[in-house]
Amino acid sequence: HLTTRSDVYSFGVVLLEVLTGRRSMDRSRPKREQNLVDWVRPYLTSGRKLRYIMDPKLAGQYSIKGARAAAALALRCVSSNPKDRPRMPAIVETLESLQNLKDMAALHGAWAPATAPASARNGVNGRTKRDSCGAAPKNQAPVASKGDHQAIVVA
Fold it and tell me: Which PROSITE patterns is this protein grouped with (predicted)?
């Protein structure tokens, strides 16, 4: 039956979805990766393996300390023993403390995840994608490239 502890478990799953960029169940993945909680659990018990589960769209531009804390919180939330799951006030307190981390790249304007294909944004080389009428879009953010990923530069 549903309890506040099952709500905490569900929140932990959502937090894992945010960290990994994956859905809680994905039958298109290999069998051992279909259930998100089962897939991440071994990685979350070792801090050095955390990078293997982080959403690749983040392109490494996230707080390591914040990611570790969020992953540890998620692991506690999805504990198989409901009594080991944290209560919501403790979850809120942990999440609020993550807001104050100084190594959060996206919060300091360095990078933000790209939301549109690179071909649909201005390039840093000065080329501009034009609409079907040949007009250049107005007020479009410049794009910086980092490896195979591109990110909108936040001013």
Answer: PROTEIN_KINASE_DOM
Tens digit of each residue's pLDDT (9 = 90 or more) over 96-125: 998 877 765 544 444 444 333 343 333 333
d(CA 76, CA 93): 14
Number of C-beta neighbours around residue 74 at 10 A: 23
CA angle 56, 62, 65 (to 5 degrees): 120
Residue written as tokens 């809680």?
24
Name all contacts of 1-9 with Cβ < 8 Å and 24+ positions apart: 3/82, 4/87, 4/88, 5/82, 5/83, 5/85, 6/82, 7/88, 8/77, 8/85, 8/86, 8/87, 8/88, 8/91, 9/77, 9/78, 9/79, 9/82, 9/85
Question: Rounded to whole angstroms, how far apart are CA atoms 153 and 142?
Answer: 6
Domains of the chain: 4-106 (1.10.510.10), 114-155 (no CATH)
